[in-house]
Amino acid sequence: MKRRCFFHNSHHTKLLTEIIHIAGMDKHKIEWSICNQCCLIFQSNSLSRSSLNLYYKKNITHFNDKDKPSEDKIYNTNRQLNIIKDNLKKFPNSVLEVSLLNDYNLKKYKLCGARKVEGLEPNKIISEAINKKKVFKVHNSTIENFRFKKKYDLIVISHVLEHLMNPLNVLKKCNKSQINGQHVLLEVPLFEALNRYKNGALMMEHLSYFNEYNFLKLILESGYEPIYISKIYERTLMPFITVLAKKSSNKFLSNFSELNKISFKNQYKEAKKYIKKNKSIWKKIDQKLSKFDKKRKTYIYGSGLHASLLFKYTNIEQKFNIVGFLDSSKSKNNTKFKNYLIRNPNINNISRKSNIIIASISSEKTIYNSLKSFRKKGINTYCLYS
Ligand SMILES: [Zn+2]
Questions:
Q1: What integer is the mean pLDDT of 276-290?
Q2: Across 217-229, average pLDDT
Q3: Crossing angle of helices 167-177/212-221, nearest 10°?
Q4: Helix, strand, or coil here: 359?
Q5: 258: CA distance to ligand 1 center in Å?
Q6: Residue 49: pLDDT band by 50, 70, 90 thresholds?
Q7: pLDDT for position 263
Q8: Check whether domain 293-382 has CATH 1.20.1050.10, yes or no
Q9: What's the gap in Å between 38 CA and the centre of ligand 1?
Q10: Would you give the DSSP letter of residue 194?
Q11: For residue 116, how far is its CA from the centre of ligand 1 (angstroms)?
């Protein structure tokens, strides 16, 4: 669907268009642009709300108590808890976290002293699993559809705003539900220092790509005053910006528009440079592919956007006899990616004298490690990056 900058509804400049294949769904055209007024990079042509909902339903891994939180999850939760503890005199009494995936953070808020801890979770299976334990109240809703009945001291919205069609309306709604002095903790990927981004930073799921300027604009226009801002460039998966802000009736917007022009020029230049760099990365990957065993039957592990780009920017289909896809997401099993069947990565499902090429950036290492028993049986497993 066609979209405009949610701040301005004004003109934008196109950056990139991709036709992408999504497992179990049709082809889609995604277009990225930059707003001429506020330099927000956003999807000017995105999946429709209903297609995105379907995609999330298929791709979100369900809650499992036995799963240990990852090292990253533990680090990020502690980091956010410390921001709250360091900047507020008292830990908030009531906390609402938006989009949970599991109850790990809720438990931590309680340990820090919050008395009323609630969550919002769009996925029905996850919210039911947490509610069943009768410790935390989880509302099965998106933030867009949620109707506030309480005034939470702190609303945590971490890695959610970049997925929303209109984050400004959502934050305004949060603001309206609170009283002056109550807080929000907001975090999104920071679309600055783009040389630190890996291949594939322009994602199908991310509708907005904030720099500091337009992220603060979003927060200020929603009626919040930032009281803490941090940018992390190296320790996290990609650069992050985190802001703790309080509802305030002060007007802070006055000096902001002057930054505008410099910001647009820089952000446009950076984005163009990044897209160019991406193309050269694909070229290198194509050269790397030439070194893999081409006589064997080949499976591609991973059927996300990255696989779609791999097929577009390299000659992988011409180079290899591709016989199918592997993907650990159960909901994708027996669906198709282009004309290829997606199977569960079970060693009995695939032939022994074959290749597996891993098509994932963030999970490449984890997938590679999970294929140890496959290598023992004589199957070649290939990484594209490491
Ligand atoms: Zn704009």
A1: 93
A2: 93
A3: 40
A4: coil
A5: 14
A6: confident
A7: 75
A8: no
A9: 4
A10: G
A11: 37
CA distance 40 to 252: 20
Gap from CA of 12 to ligand 1 centroid (Å):
8
Determine how many CB atoms are found less than 10 A away from the CB of residue 328: 16
Cβ burial, residue 251 (10 Å; 0-12/13-18/19+): exposed
Distance 42 CA to ligand 1 centre (A): 9
What is residue 144's three-state secondary structure? coil
Q: Which residues pair with 31 in a beta bridge?
A: 17, 45
Ligand 1 centroid distance, CA of 14 (Å): 13
Instruction: Give the integer Cα–Cα distance in Å for 209 and 220.
Output: 17
φ and ψ at residue 269, rounded to 5 degrees: -60, -45
Cβ(241)–Cβ(161) below 8 Å = no
DSSP result, 202-268: S-SS--EEB-HHHHHHHHHHTTEEEEEEEEESSSSSS-EEEEEEEE------GGGGGGHHHHHHHHH
What mean pLDDT do residues 275-295 have?
A: 93
Domains of the chain, by residue range, sit at 293-382
**Model pTM greater than 0.85?**
yes
* Mean per-residue pLDDT of the chain: 90
Q: Answer whether residue 213 shows pLDDT above 70.
A: yes
In the chain, the N- to C-terminal Cα span, in Å, equals: 36
Check residue 111 and give its pLDDT: 97
Q: Positive or negative, the Cα torsion across 58, 64, 70, 73?
A: positive
The pLDDT tens digits for 112-157 are 999 999 999 998 888 999 999 999 999 999 999 999 999 999 999 9
